[in-house]
Amino acid sequence: MSALVLARRARVADLVGVAERREASGLIVRDGLLLVVSDNTGSVAVLDPGLALPGREIPLRGGRGRGYEDIAADPATGRLFVLVEALPDGPPFHALVEEYDDRYRLVGAKVLDVPLERANKGVEGLAVARHEGRTHLLGLCEARGGRMPVFTEAADRWEPIATIQLPLDFDDYAGVAVAGERIAVISQESSALWLGRLDPRTWTVDDGVVHDFPRDDDGKPRFATVEGVSFLGLHQVVVATDRTSGRRHPTAEQSVAVFDLPTILPRPGGAARTRPARRRRAAGG
Q1: Would the pTM of this model clear 0.85, i.e. be above it?
Q2: Which of 94, 123, 132, 263 could serve as 139's disulfide partner, Cβ 3.0–4.6 Å?
Q3: Which domain does 168 fall in, by range?
Q4: Phi-psi region of 56 (alpha: psi -120 to 50; beta: other; left: phi over 0)
Q5: What stretches of 147-242 show up as alpha helix (H) in DSSP?
Q6: Residue 216's pLDDT is what?
Q7: How many domains does the chain have?
Q8: pLDDT, tens only, 159-209
Q9: Counting Cβ atoms within 10 Å, is residue 249 exposed (0-12), middle (13-18) or buried (19+)?
């Protein structure tokens, strides 16, 4: 399977003109701009997709202020959602979704009603899918073996109504994006991207295709900390990267990176095939 092609990359802190770290964890494309959240700050970075112009930061007013894992928006209603991986009140733990208005002021917060055994193995990715005129949230769990709950909104929480089984054998699950019928999932440990098609009538996906992020001359991942993903038109995706924590290729960390897609997904019923991602070896193996 061919690798993704890096088109451009820039560090978030450089783009917004700050000296502090920006541990980018999630992003979306909205109104022609990138909105990036980091898990160590309570602001949204607003960036040009070309990554050549200076960006700016806007505080998320009224929210928890830290621990943000992803961001999602409903294209039909404009509702903006920010994900907190897990609240520190378990076990069981629950992820929290904060909702903001167009001035980035908190207007509500509701838990995703799926119990999590560990706070640091919570919900890593968030996406919006619409069906029959309703907003649904997709919550990508890091440690559920490729099972992704689908939520509908209740008065005081987001209730699970279905579970999407991803046709993947990734070592972990770090981010998800939905654009129409297209869906993307990334893995940090496998350093790979899966592209598929989503059917919200049945909450199922096709086999899709898997592409690796670029490797170095030794075959090691150059992008080992991918956290968030979004579609940038038909031919590109953009990802957010966290800090490396001593891993190789530190220049790829705390950044946003745009990648060209080697192929476009075939229409439903086409000959797309999936390459299973490598499993992590058992401890002591």
Answers
A1: yes
A2: 123
A3: 5-260
A4: beta
A5: none
A6: 87
A7: 1
A8: 999 999 999 889 899 999 999 999 999 999 999 999 999 999 999 999 999
A9: middle
